[in-house]
Amino acid sequence: MEREQHGDVELVDITATHDAAAGRSAIFLVNRSQTDVAACVVDVSAFGKTTLTEAHTLSDADVYAANTLEDPERVKTQANSSAMISDGFLTVELPPVSWTVLVLAISGQQGATPDSLN
After folding, report:
1. Quick count: other Cβ atoms within 10 Å of Cβ 36?
2. Close Cβ partners of 24 (under 8 Å, ≥ 6 residues apart)
3. Confidence of residue 8 (pLDDT cuts 50, 70, 90)
4. Rounded distance, CA 38 to CA 12, Å?
5. CB 26 within 8 A of CB 102
6. What is the model's pTM?
7. pLDDT digit string, tens, across residues 18-73
8. Cross-strand pairs, 3
9. Which domains are seen in the chain, by residue range?
10. DSSP letters along 50-106, please?
């Protein structure tokens, strides 16, 4: 996506954290498109046995919706039922203008880190 002030900006951005001691990772995704759903695939095979424990998305069908004093719950997180792991790949659909968090329980390979996601 072309932005006058910042130049080219990716429509989807991803970052992750990993807590080896707890055996958990969190993946955070943003879809900046104002009109299109983004289908994302993340290779999590380096983690070994991985289970998706949470999938939440903050979005609204009206991309200009906002929480107000009169309606403080207008935009809120909801379960993202599109998220799943199969054969070492995590897939998820991101609605337009959305923020998503995926939490993984990892009981597989030691030493895998979010760098493995690149």
Report:
1. 12
2. 18, 53, 103, 104, 105, 106
3. confident
4. 7
5. yes
6. 0.82
7. 998 999 999 999 999 999 999 999 999 998 899 999 999 999 999 899 999 999 99
8. 7
9. 11-61+76-107 (2.60.40.1180)
10. EEEEEEEEE--SSTT----SS-TTSS-EEE-TT-EEETTEEEEEE-SSEEEEEEEEE
